[in-house]
Design brief:
It is built from 4 helices and 7 strands; from the N terminus they run E-H-E-E-E-H-E-H-E-H-E. It is an alpha+beta fold and 135 residues long. The protein has one domain: Bit1 (3-Layer(aba) Sandwich). The protein has a 5-stranded mixed sheet with strand order 5-6-1-4-7. The protein has a two-stranded antiparallel ribbon with strand order 2-3.
Length: 135
């Protein structure tokens, strides 16, 4: 139905609360950069308005740390834009500290625990090859 795919990849060893937190943070960047992925406002039968949401399903995959690194490399090699959540961000409490924590690490040293993508379905299928949906 869609020629694009919206997906999140999470480290499978995270506790549930961290998986939920990483997912929420990671997809927030997708909505900002790719406004067309967000639909129209919702309106109930009484006329109350609600914020819009993504117009297509979000698929959530899990991977071990090695597979996360593989997905990262595949995405970088294809020049994809994506959001990134590193393990260091669990110890920060504001956006400025989050950015500083990522900036301190060269790409090969990033301890990736989550990423979110919205791109062409065929390209993303290649990047996510071998991953399973989160259970």
């Amino acid at each position: 139905m869609f020629d694009t795919k919206l997906a999140v990849v999470l480290a499978e060893d995270l506790p549930t609360w961290q998986k939920l937190n990483v997912t929420a943070f990671a997809v927030s960047g997708i909505g900002k950069v790719y406004g067309e992925v967000v639909g129209e406002d919702y309106v109930d039968g009484s006329g109350n308005r609600y914020l819009p949401m993504f117009r297509q399903p979000v698929l959530i995959f899990s991977a071990d740390r090695e597979k996360l690194r593989t997905v990262y490399e595949r995405a970088m090699n294809r020049g994809l834009k994506f959001s990134l959540f590193t393990e260091d961000l669990f110890a920060t409490y504001n956006d400025a500290d989050n950015r500083a924590a990522v900036r301190r690490c060269p790409s090969e040293s990033l301890r990736i625990v989550g990423m979110a993508f919205w791109t062409d379905k065929k390209i993303l299928d290649k990047v996510l090859k071998g991953l399973s949906l989160c259970q």
